[in-house]
Write a structure and sequence with these properties.
- This protein is of the alpha/beta class and 361 residues long.
- It has helices at 8-14, 16-27, 53-70, 79-85, 105-114, 131-135, 154-173, 179-199, 203-213, 228-242, 278-290, 301-307, 325-328, 330-344; strands at residues 28-29, 32-33, 46-51, 74-78, 93-99, 120-125, 138-141, 218-223, 245-250, 267-271, 294-300, 313-317.
- A five-stranded parallel beta sheet has the order 4-3-5-6-7, sandwiched between helices. Strands 9-8-10-11-12 form a five-stranded parallel beta sheet, sandwiched between helices.
- The protein is globular.
- Bound molecules: fructose -6-phosphate.
- It is found in: Cytoplasm.
Length: 361
């Protein structure tokens, strides 16, 4: 059932090109977006997005997308805070709940709080028969297929893909996209599964670095813009399966505290495609190196040529359109966690203290 792989997690990481291709094929038809008919964003004034764990990080990425391409304000919260805070829901707000299992107790409770208050409840779910799917006004399936590994991998990239399609639909409905721009986004999306395939080829390099990372007590992950949530996701994944303490920070927050941790024993993983904010991230990286921090820079060839010098280790990613970078950079985040856990000999598919579906709060 593991299809020749040692772990479900490895199988699920490897399945991503195929499941993403399927999700994109279903979400795009005849060169236009193909989302549920009642998903019309023209009168929506605000999104409130709620989830837990990895699904929450997918929401944080989506916030950058919705705000940038659709000009739609987005509030994001973890379900356990949202549900007891009981925030006011303004008119024409859509409430979006993202959950692989569709059964997470806090997310479901947050959804129920929004029933009758939000203009529409959207569930972005993997399990189509789940409570969250059933109780949503619009259930948007992510179609990742069954995910067995406790650490979420393909569900995360499929959540991101579904949310990217939603953000493009919102931009279209709100008159923010020309036909040519939409066509370009769709072409870029269609090329994504191929890029993910290429990114998977970094596995041997990652496995070498992971043997060294496995010696660390603490690891920092840095990212900026839509790569900031990927830094948090990379840290979460690593904690979950290798039990190494890791934290994800927005690169610009480094000097507001975490830089005090930097010494020659703390590896710092920097997720930084050569995008518009690259220079800013590089200067944060240099601050780490000036304090003898060990930087692992994960970037594309252009980024590494510009800033790879002096880094402890580098990993070369395919170059990718900015919009899709957070989806592609999920791959190194997953592989780093996986191979570090392998190096430590932990139980990758069934990490201690964790359950696949958290149905109690
Ligand atoms: C991380 C992980 C958890 C889940 C979280 C939400 O790898 O698996 O953080 O993402 O428990 O679960 P769902 O998406 O089922 O609501």
């Amino acid at each position: 059932e593991k299809g020749g792989f040692k772990h479900f997690m490895a199988k699920e990481i490897a399945e991503q090109p195929v499941v993403l291709a399927e999700a994109i094929q279903r979400g795009v038809a005849n060169g236009t977006l193909n989302l549920p008919e009642d998903m019309d964003f023209s009168k929506v004034e605000r999104l409130t997005m709620v989830a837990c764990g990895t699904a929450y990080y997918a929401c944080v990425v989506a916030k950058y997308w919705f705000e940038k391409v659709a000009g739609l304000p987005v509030e994001v919260d973890v379900a356990s805070e949202f549900r007891y805070r009981e925030p006011p829901i303004t008119p024409n707000t859509w409430a979006v709940f993202v959950s692989q299992s569709g059964e997470t107790a806090d997310t479901l409770a947050a959804l129920r709080f929004c029933q009758g208050k939000a203009a529409k409840i959207v569930g972005v779910v993997n399990v189509p028969t789940s409570s969250i799917a059933r109780e949503s006004d619009i259930a948007l399936p992510i179609r990742a297929g069954v995910e067995v590994g406790v650490a979420s991998t393909k569900a995360f990239t499929c959540q991101l893909t579904a949310l990217a399609l939603m953000a493009l639909k919102a931009a279209q409905d709100r008159g923010r996209l020309t036909a040519a721009e939409l066509a370009q986004y769709i072409a870029d999306l269609s090329a994504l599964p191929g890029l993910v395939n290429q990114a998977l080829l970094i596995a041997p390099e990652v496995s070498r670095v992971a043997k060294e990372l496995a010696e660390a007590q603490d690891i920092l992950f840095l990212g900026r813009g839509p790569l900031f949530p990927l830094a948090m996701e990379g840290a979460l994944k690593l904690k979950e399966i290798s039990y190494i303490h890791a934290e994800g920070y927005a690169s610009g927050e480094l000097k507001h505290g975490p830089i005090a941790l930097i010494d020659a024993h703390v590896p710092v993983v920097v997720l930084a495609p050569r995008d518009a904010l690259f220079e800013k991230t590089v200067s944060n990286m240099q601050e780490v190196m000036a304090r003898h921090g060990k930087v692992l820079l994960i970037s594309d060839a252009a980024g590494l040529e510009e800033a790879g010098m002096g880094c402890w280790r580098t990993i070369t990613m395919p170059s990718v359109p900015d919009f899709l970078a957070p989806i592609l950079y999920a791959v190194p985040a997953q592989l780093l966690a996986y191979h570090t856990a392998i190096a430590k000999g932990t139980d990758v598919d069934q990490p201690r203290n964790l359950a696949k579906s958290v149905t109690v709060e």
